[in-house]
């Protein structure tokens, strides 16, 4: 049976002799339901691995609590926490073959069809040919698959995975990712996956926690995070190509709020709480840009147009704004260099952020 996992004001301060204490995790709250897959997503150094290692019991907790199935675990050794841990660095037993490594725990528990279970899982993770090999002969991508299999075969109530697919080549990564998702759904393990790869997080996760500087910036479903980013960091980090972020000035009109961008014109926005005349950061996803009717939207000049067959990407100069704007077009639109185009977006997709705090202005 899967267990719930709760992080309650979890903190980690690293104290290294001769150095200032470093707060890697700064008070994290996270409530993961039984059977849910949550991705911890963030840039290098944001504290994802430290968080996972504290849950696993490989790192001490400075303060706060971790509860697995309602039981507080920070004082328990790793082996008593009832977790499956798929860390690449987690040692396999070198004298045993991969098959023996995978079957070890099952045989210790006297599971009758241990070998058949190993065969089935190995086939699903495309690693049957690795079963007779010894750990020292494996490449990093192969070791990663074995670590994943070893965590999965125990059918743990809570599964922790740290960058589980990072060493696989692009096509194997997609297939193993889908298989991991299928296995997780089938067996219902509560799962935390640490990744810096947003595609991995978007495709695997029921919900994702976007982290930066030791803090969870937003926790929600992939759609909530993409459609309704809580702040400038999340808006910038999630989405490919990234959201355009440019300076703008708010004007409150009787018909609604608009935001002016340089000398290029203005866009209507559904944000209602912006102060008239305030300088804000305007967020506009390249995918949300549409061609506007004459006399409305932003007047832009095409600097470069890339025809990527299924869609096009225009790099547009905007009068009065230093950085260019990226706009994605449908496959039937082709822009010429130097052409003038008018760009708009649905008002609910024109995001405003406070220039000081970076918080969303709604
Ligand atoms: N043992 C340690 N002693 C001191 N500082 C550490 C230690 N381990 C990690 N850190 C620091 O804590 C911060 C968070 O590290 P962590 O490994 O949790 O980040 P991460 O988000 O997983 O990044 P990455 O994806 O690069 O592994 C980093 O600035 C790192 O340098």
TrEMBL record:
User: Which part of the chain is the ABC transporter domain?
Assistant: 5-238
* InterPro entries per the UniProt record, alphabetical: AAA+_ATPase, ABC_transporter-like_ATP-bd, ABC_transporter-like_CS, ABC_transpr_MalK/UgpC-like, Mo/tungstate-bd_C_term_dom, NA-bd_OB-fold, OB_MalK-like, P-loop_NTPase
Its domain of life reads: Bacteria
Q: A GO molecular-function term, please? A: ATP binding
Could you list this entry's UniProt keywords, alphabetically sorted.
ATP-binding, Nucleotide-binding, Transport
Q: Which GO terms describe its cellular component?
A: ATP-binding cassette (ABC) transporter complex, substrate-binding subunit-containing
Report the PANTHER family cross-referenced here: MALTODEXTRIN IMPORT ATP-BINDING PROTEIN MSMX, OSMOPROTECTIVE COMPOUNDS UPTAKE ATP-BINDING PROTEIN GGTA
List the protein's name.
ABC transporter
Which species does this protein come from? Actinocatenispora thailandica
């Amino acid at each position: 049976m899967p267990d719930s996992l709760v992080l309650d004001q979890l903190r980690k301060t690293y104290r290294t002799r001769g150095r200032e204490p470093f707060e890697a995790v700064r008070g994290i709250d996270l409530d993961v339901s039984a059977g849910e897959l949550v991705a911890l997503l963030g840039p290098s150094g944001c504290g994802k691995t430290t968080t996972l290692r504290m849950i696993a019991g490989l790192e001490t907790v400075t303060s706060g609590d971790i509860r697995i199935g309602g039981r507080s675990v920070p004082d328990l050794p790793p082996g008593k926490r009832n977790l499956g841990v798929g860390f690449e660095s987690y040692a396999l037993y070198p004298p045993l073959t991969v098959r023996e490594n995978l079957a070890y725990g099952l045989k210790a528990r006297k599971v009758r069809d241990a070998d058949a279970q190993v065969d089935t899982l190995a086939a699903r993770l495309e690693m049957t040919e690795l079963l007779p090999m010894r750990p020292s002969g494996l490449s990093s991508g192969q070791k990663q698959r074995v670590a994943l299999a070893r965590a999965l075969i125990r059918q743990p109530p809570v599964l922790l995975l740290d960058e589980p697919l990072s060493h696989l080549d692009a096509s194997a990564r997609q297939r193993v990712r889908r298989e991991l998702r299928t296995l997780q759904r089938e067996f219902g393990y509560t799962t935390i996956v640490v990744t810096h790869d947003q595609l991995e997080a978007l495709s695997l996760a029921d919900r994702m926690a976007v982290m930066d500087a030791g803090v969870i910036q937003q926790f929600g479903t992939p759609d909530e995070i993409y459609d309704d980013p809580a702040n400038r960091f999340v808006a910038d980090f999630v989405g490919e190509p990234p959201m355009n972020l440019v300076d703008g000035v708010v004007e409150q009109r009787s018909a609604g709020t608009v935001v002016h961008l340089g000398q290029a014109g203005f866009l209507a926005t559904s944000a209602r709480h912006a102060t008239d005349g305030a300088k804000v950061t305007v967020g506009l996803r390249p995918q949300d840009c549409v061609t506007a009717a004459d006399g409305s939207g932003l007047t832009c000049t095409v600097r470069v147009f890339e025809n990527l067959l299924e869609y096009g990407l225009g790099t547009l100069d905007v009068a009065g704004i230093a950085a260019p704007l990226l706009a994605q077009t449908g496959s039937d639109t082709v822009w010429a260099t130097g052409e003038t185009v008018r760009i708009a977006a649905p008002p609910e997709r024109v995001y405003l952020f406070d220039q000081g705090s970076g918080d969303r202005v709604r």
